[in-house]
Specification:
Layout: H1 2-5, H2 9-25, H3 37-53, E1 62-63, E2 69-70, E3 75-78, E4 82-86, E5 92-93, E6 98-104, E7 110-114, E8 120-123, H4 125-131, E9 132-134
Antiparallel strand pairs: 1-2, 3-6, 3-9, 4-5, 6-7, 7-8
């Protein structure tokens, strides 16, 4: 798209980030989307640095499947259905679910809250390391 509009990739990344930051400041649930993995990684890293600096996210964290870190305040996405991880009679952790980290443990488990239905669950360290990504 940058080539078609004559803009640079950096300018598009900046526009995406500025829109996301503005939505976040307005209290909206917002997501950044990028077509290339390197753009996703750059945007996610920048967002985490800024959120840590603002005190919204703890500086420490556990390593996720995508190489990023997540700690209290971060949003993650689960990337594998796991019917063993239940948080209700019929609800279980699904691919694409978005969660906010409410606590992390020294052994790598994450206590998380589902962003849509507010359900709580503890994700095992193995699941986090293999199937969780920055949200």
């Amino acid at each position: 798209h940058a080539r078609a509009t004559g803009g640079s990739v950096e300018a598009m990344r900046e526009q995406v980030y500025a829109s996301w930051a503005g939505d976040l400041a307005d209290g909206k649930d917002t997501v950044m989307v990028a077509g290339l993995a390197e753009d996703v990684a750059d945007l996610a890293a920048r967002a985490r640095v800024d959120r840590v600096a603002a005190g919204d996210v703890e500086a420490g964290g556990v390593e996720l499947h995508d190489g990023h870190r997540a700690g209290r305040g971060d949003v993650i996405v689960t990337r594998r259905n796991d019917r063993r991880l239940k948080y209700g009679p019929t609800d279980f952790v699904r691919n694409g679910d978005r969660w906010e980290v409410t606590e992390r443990t020294a052994d790598g488990r994450l206590h998380v809250q589902h962003l849509a239905n507010k359900a709580l669950i503890v994700l095992p360290a193995e699941y986090v390391a293999e199937h969780a990504e920055v949200g």
